[in-house]
Specification:
Layout (H helix, E strand, L loop, with lengths): L2 E12 L38 H13 L3 E2 L2 E2 L2 E4 L9 E4 L6 E10 L2 E14 L3 E4 L4 E4 L6 E7 L6 H18 L11 E11 L9 E6 L2 H20 L7 E6 L4 E7 L9 E2 L6 E2 L2 H8 L6 H12 L3 H7 L3 H13 L6 H17 L11 H12 L5 H14 L3 H7 L8 H14 L1 H8 L4 H13 L6 H14 L1
Parallel strand pairs: 12-13
Antiparallel strand pairs: 1-10, 1-11, 2-6, 3-16, 4-5, 4-15, 6-7, 7-10, 8-9, 11-12, 13-14
Helix pairs in contact: 2-3, 5-6, 5-7, 7-9, 9-10, 12-14, 12-15, 13-14, 14-15
């Protein structure tokens, strides 16, 4: 029997507010452990929560960007469970009346568009962080009480590849809204995955496993792939899949059982008595909606229409707002009609420089006008492509302009034919056999001769001009 995976994802996005969701403690990352806490986020007796208005608005903004409906009436609830990093033994979350629900996200997979429904997006407080040592575990409560938006998909995902595309698209959209930086290394975006198998072609749901400890999209894809194989082996072996929470062990490439999976009833939800319900006006919802910028898919389509880009290039340039902003400013500053020239530099040499430094494009410090200046030197054949790449590296390292670097290093190409003619004549005289090879139809011979001229000029001759002179002289010889 063939089986089909059924996958639902729970994505936790830490909102980029200056203070926590129910108190005034700062949310700055990387501070001394337990230095950003107070009686409220530590759950001291008698302390009361006060809702962060910006967190509420950010949650609504993210929901609207994901095509969700913001509910006019919403409330908070207490979710009961015990973890060492949850000082109150409860979490203020939302149960039956989340801020937003019934959204969707379209992904491109296998040349087709697939819609993944979003069940809900609710606001809650984050837990702390356990730091494990060889003989002990320590708790850092700085993260406790930071605003967390949990985005829950419907079980519409049917492969690890679809899960990866969904997460990539979701991250890009959230980053565009500006409500979170979605940095998995800092823990501001985390993901849990629910996976079950069912006979292909059926509509029911099998017994699921929840996967945790997924610290990258790659880990999500690999853990799901492993679990699909494990579930299938359990089922075909005549055994029952146990509903449980499992941890992903990246070192061994396996999942490990953590605990049996809780149901909603196990958390004993009830309305949070210290926070009133909240009502949204249509006017406020529309005000928040107007703050949503042009999102990745719409921007990619505009790039295709406005700048004549191919779909693949447009998608790559709009994967993040900062990359898209840099690309658009550079294309607008470039005087040439063919914007593909700029695109080639952005997704080629500039991306290579960023990868080598483990940075994003916008973090390299290259201004659009400076990149356009460099491209202009190549377009006018004043420097070679190879020299231009070296200039780009120095521009990033020194923050100097292309013109100054080219002048200081004497990198300008020789394009004047009269200056090149004598070197061409010398190379022809020195290589009579290669000349005969060219005349007999061996095209590679010309490239060899061009290379010899470039050696004589120490790489400064314009190779295209060299090739033109060689062809003319050899054909007339």
């Amino acid at each position: 029997m063939n089986y089909e995976p059924v996958i639902g994802l729970e994505v936790h996005v830490q909102l980029k507010t200056k203070t926590k969701v129910f108190c005034a403690c700062p949310t700055e990352f990387g501070k001394e452990p337990n230095s950003q806490v107070c009686p409220v986020c530590l759950g001291f007796p008698g302390s009361l929560p006060v809702l962060n208005k910006t967190a509420l608005e950010y949650a609504a903004k993210a929901g609207l960007a994901l095509n969700c409906t913001v509910q006019k009436y919403t409330k908070f609830d207490r979710k009961h469970y015990y973890y060492p990093d949850l000082p109150k033994n409860i979490q203020i979350s939302q149960y039956d009346l989340p801020i937003s629900k019934d959204g969707y996200l379209d992904i491109e997979i296998g040349g087709r568009t697939k819609r993944i429904r979003i069940k809900r997006a609710h606001l809650e407080e984050d837990a702390g962080k356990l730091v494990h040592h060889e003989n002990a575990s320590l708790v850092d409560y700085n993260r406790t009480g930071q605003p967390l938006l949990e985005i829950v998909s419907e079980p519409d995902i049917n492969s690890p590849e679809e899960a990866y595309e969904y997460l990539t698209s979701l991250k890009s959209i959230i980053q565009y809204t500006g409500v979170s930086d979605c940095d998995m290394e800092k823990g501001t975006l985390r993901c849990d995955a629910n996976i079950s198998l069912r006979p292909a072609g059926t509509k029911g749901l099998g017994v699921k496993s929840e996967l945790k400890n997924l610290n990258s999209f790659k880990a999500v894809r690999e853990a799901l792939t492993y679990e699909i194989e494990r579930h299938e082996q359990v089922i075909t072996g005549g055994e029952q899949v146990v509903q449980e929470t499992r941890l992903w062990d990246e070192k061994t490439g396996r999942t490990i059982s953590m605990r049996t999976k809780e149901e909603a009833k196990d958390y004993r939800y009830f309305p949070e008595p210290d926070l009133p319900p909240f009502e949204w006006t249509e006017e406020l919802i529309e005000t928040i909606r107007k703050t949503i910028p042009e999102l990745p898919k719409a921007r990619a389509m505009r790039f295709m229409k406005e700048y004549g880009l191919q779909e693949a290039d447009a998608k790559q340039l709009t994967c993040s707002m900062q990359a898209a902003d840099l690309a658009e400013k550079t294309m607008r500053a470039y005087p040439g009609a063919n914007k593909k020239t700029v695109v080639n530099w952005l997704i080629g040499p500039l991306a290579s420089e960023a990868n080598a430094r483990s940075l994003q494009w916008h973090e390299l410090g290259i201004k659009p006008e400076d990149l356009v200046e460099l491209i202009g030197y190549v377009d006018s054949r004043q420097i070679s492509n190879l020299a231009a790449k070296a200039v780009l590296t120095e521009m990033i390292d020194t923050r100097r302009t292309a013109g100054l670097i080219i002048k200081d290093k004497n990198l300008a190409q020789i394009s004047d034919e009269s200056s090149i003619e004598k070197d061409v004549a010398a190379v022809i005289a020195e290589n009579p056999k290669v000349v005969e090879d060219f005349k007999s139809g061996k095209s590679n011979a010309l490239m060899f001769l061009v290379g010899q001229v470039m050696k004589k000029t120490k790489g400064k001759a314009n190779p295209q001009v060299v090739g033109d002179i060689l062809k003319r002289r050899l054909q007339n010889a």
